[in-house]
């Protein structure tokens, strides 16, 4: 069961869209290795707008993600 989520909206600076997309894609292996990260989506919402959606079973899982490897990525 999912009881904790995050949604982050990222607005890339003009000309940095490709770098933001590359950064998000490069973080996927990190997120996939986190046992408490049930769902992770990183859609492009517009020309320079990206979103990151995560789902976790609980607050401990969300905190493990926020203060784990992804933070240092």
Q: What are the salient characteristics of this protein?
A:
73 residues, alpha+beta, 3-stranded antiparallel β-sheet, 2 helices, 3 strands
Summarize the structure.
It is built from two helices and three strands, in the order βαββα.
Q: Can you describe what's shown?
A:
- The chain is elongated and about 35 Å long.
- The chain has helices at residues 17-32, 59-66, and strands at residues 4-11, 39-41, 49-56.
- The chain is of the alpha+beta class and 73 residues long.
- The mean pLDDT is 93.
- A three-stranded antiparallel beta sheet has the order 1-3-2.
Give the topology, please:
Layout: E1 4-11, H1 17-32, E2 39-41, E3 49-56, H2 59-66
The major pleated sheet works out as:
3 strands, antiparallel
Q: Could you give the distance between the termini?
A: 27 Å
State the strand order across the main sheet: 1-3-2
Broad shape: elongated
* Number of DSSP strand runs: 3
């Amino acid at each position: 069961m999912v009881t904790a989520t995050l949604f982050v909206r990222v607005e890339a600076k003009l000309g940095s869209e490709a770098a933001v997309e590359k950064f998000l894609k490069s973080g996927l292996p990190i997120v996939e290795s986190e046992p408490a990260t049930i769902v992770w989506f990183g859609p492009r919402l517009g020309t320079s707008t990206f979103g990151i959606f995560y789902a976790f079973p609980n607050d401990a899982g969300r905190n493990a993600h926020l203060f784990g490897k992804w933070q240092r990525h």
